[in-house]
Amino acid sequence: MIHCEGLVKIYKTDDIEVVALQGLNMTVEQGEMMAIIGNSGSGKSTLLNILGGLDRPSAGQAVVGPWNLLKMSKEHLIEYKRKTVGFIWQNNARNLVPYLTATQNVELPMLIMGKADRVYAKQLLAAVGLEHRMGSRLTQLSGGEQQRVAIAIALSNRPSLILADEPTGSVDSSTGEQILDIFRRLNREMGVTIVIVTHDLSVADKVDRVVAIRDGLTSTEWVKRDMDTALANLEDDEESTATAAAPGSRFGARHEEFVVIDRAGRLQIPKTYLDEMNVAGKAVLEFDGKRVIISPPEDSTDSASPIDGGRSKEPD
Ligand SMILES: Nc1ncnc2c1ncn2[C@@H]1O[C@H](COP(=O)(O)OP(=O)(O)OP(=O)(O)O)[C@@H](O)[C@H]1O
């Protein structure tokens, strides 16, 4: 569904250039529900805005279904935004008209496309659990209810892709959980692909895969294990939660962690590892037939240990 390769986005303001995406690679399968996490400024929103057709990439490849986002004409971009993709923001005021009812709000994007389908608008509101609030004006709804209307609006033109930027960011944790459960149901029942950008690590439990972005590049990926494996690992999970500082244990035994290696063989080493190894700028790379071992250069301080956990450089 989504294929990004070597994706670059440079923002130019006066004489300053900010490289927000530095050659990012990412693939999302049709029908997948996945999350993108990363620190503030890592490039998450930039990526989502490009995938949503709200911003143009500077270079690289960004393909969504049959659409090439780098080469698309203005007319095609408008069609793409209307038909293929639905957007949900943290601040849903951007999608909603306060003096209209929930149903009228969902009908609005349909009207812009030509004709409102009231039956479908009501089906969507029922799908997000708002059958009893269809006639309420937006001002009469809670934040969580408004967010559910925003989800129904995003689905109104039957998009194949939903992009959600911090969709649980401004609601309490139980409402956030409800919203993610709605996403999961819509993903299963309607087959819509869902990409969620978030700071909220608890979202990981609700998605198939989590991709971490660091400095404008995908760095690490966690793939949900199948249920049997997850249950079998529940005990380990408790242990790994206790050592949550290590990146590999962040999502416990429910997810398997992979480092992302691009076509050119580049990968990102977590800063904590580099600091601990005392590696900066350059390192020694060895291949022992099974593992690649990265160590500090000979002349750097003694305290450093190699990246494979110290096995190849144990003190005698
Ligand atoms: N319109 C813009 N003009 C100039 N620089 C920008 C613009 N938008 C984003 N940036 C810069 O690009 C980088 C990535 O920003 P982005 O908003 O994608 O990060 P983010 O991971 O979504 O952060 P947050 O979690 O805080 O929303 C940052 O350094 C940011 O300052």
TrEMBL record:
It comes from the Bacteria. CDD domains: ABC_MJ0796_LolCDE_FtsE (cd03255). Residues 256-299 form the SpoVT-AbrB domain. Residues 294-316 are annotated as: Disordered. Residues 2-240 form the ABC transporter domain. Signal peptide: none annotated. GO terms for molecular function: ATP binding. Keywords: ATP-binding, DNA-binding, Nucleotide-binding, Transport. SMART domains: AAA (SM00382). PANTHER family: ABC TRANSPORTER RELATED, IMPORT ATP-BINDING PROTEIN. This is ABC transporter ATP-binding protein. It comes from Paenibacillus spongiae. The lineage of its organism: Bacteria, Bacillati, Bacillota, Bacilli, Bacillales.
